[in-house]
Specification:
Layout lengths: L24 H14 L4 H8 L3 H10 L17 H16 L4 H8 L3 H10 L20 H10 L4 H8 L3 H10 L4 E2 L11 E2 L1 H7 L1 H9 L11 H4 L8 H10 L4 H8 L3 H10 L12 H12 L17
Antiparallel strand pairs: 1-2
């Protein structure tokens, strides 16, 4: 296919030149530069148009001082109406219908990485993928948790049985909303028998020092973890070890402070050679919190008022 004629092009004089055996090297270089810079053709396409070897096209461009993009970088092309409509449809499927990028790829026949790239180009916030997906977790409404767990006083297991979910989901919903959660085990000598976990984590001196050292800001409770942390805090192996070993937090506690899924934290700890604590029982952080309650001064009890007047 012959190149387009463009009178405004700096190389326009070469557009009608026949590329034959007698063509001058300067004319060939100018024609190749015109096709690459002005027409936007790739080196492969220039080779098919001119009959030159692609490697020779690259050498001509380099010798002419024309910057060539790395192989595979592609060339910017305008978005046509068909692609724009497809991108809008993919955004609706991803945002409104909640389909994954893999499901959209199967529907559209477009590679999954291309689907994700085009969604990002439209400013769509991408969800985490696979079994670590925070956005697609099973959730229950805060009102239901308050009604069954807080007001009715059911245990997490009992509330979960009524709702058809595990006790862990009930507790996770309560923690996400900053609701007081019963710790279980023997009652403390005085003080509350439940804990507002997010507040207690931020109030712990050891945790505060680690968060300040790693410049992690406080995020108040309220809403699921993906809403509190639209972008999870990057967690290094060093930070995970400090919170898990140094501060004695559980994996779920670290998730509440960083937004990173618990499975990601476990994977970091395993990669760093840190053995998980045995299942069951309280974490060192919760034991420290309970010890702080026992060591706090007991509140003064009000003295009962006597109805009889004091004798003189």
């Amino acid at each position: 296919m012959p190149p387009r004629r463009d009178v405004a092009c700096a190389h326009a004089r070469v557009c009608e030149m026949p590329l034959d055996a007698g063509a001058k090297p300067a004319d060939i270089a100018e024609l190749v530069s015109h096709l690459y810079l002005c027409e936007g053709l790739s080196t492969y396409r220039i080779g098919s148009v001119t009959g030159l070897d692609r490697q020779r096209v690259g050498r001509i461009l380099a010798k002419s001082g024309v910057p060539v993009k790395p192989r595979g970088a592609g060339r910017r092309r305008p978005i046509d109406d068909h692609q724009l409509a497809m991108d809008e449809s993919m955004e609706r499927l991803y945002v409104d219908s909640g389909l994954s990028s893999r499901e959209i790829a199967e529907i559209t026949g477009i590679a999954e990485r291309t689907v994700r790239a085009r969604l990002r180009a439209r400013g769509v916030r991408m969800r985490t993928r696979g079994r670590l997906n925070r956005e697609d977790r099973v959730t229950i409404s805060p009102e239901t948790v308050v009604q069954l767990y807080v007001d009715a006083g059911l245990s997490a297991a009992e509330a979960g049985k009524l709702l058809g979910v595990s006790r862990h989901i009930v507790l996770r919903a309560a923690h996400d909303e900053g609701l007081p959660v019963r710790v279980g085990g023997p009652e403390p000598g005085h003080g509350p028998a439940d804990i507002e976990l997010v507040e207690a984590l931020y109030a712990d001196p050891l945790v505060r020092r680690v968060l300040a050292r790693h410049h992690i800001s406080r995020r108040p409770a309220g809403g699921p973890i993906w809403q509190r942390f639209p972008v999870p805090v990057p967690v290094t192996a060093e930070l995970a070890e400090e919170l898990y070993v140094g501060c004695g937090l559980g994996v779920r506690h670290i998730e509440l402070l960083t937004g990173q899924p618990g499975q990601t934290i476990r994977r970091l700890l395993r990669a760093d050679g840190i053995r998980p604590r045995p299942a069951g029982g309280r974490s060192p952080f919760l034991r420290r919190w309970r010890a702080g309650l026992r060591g706090a001064p007991a509140p003064d009890k009000p003295r009962p008022e006597s109805g009889a007047p004091r004798s003189s």
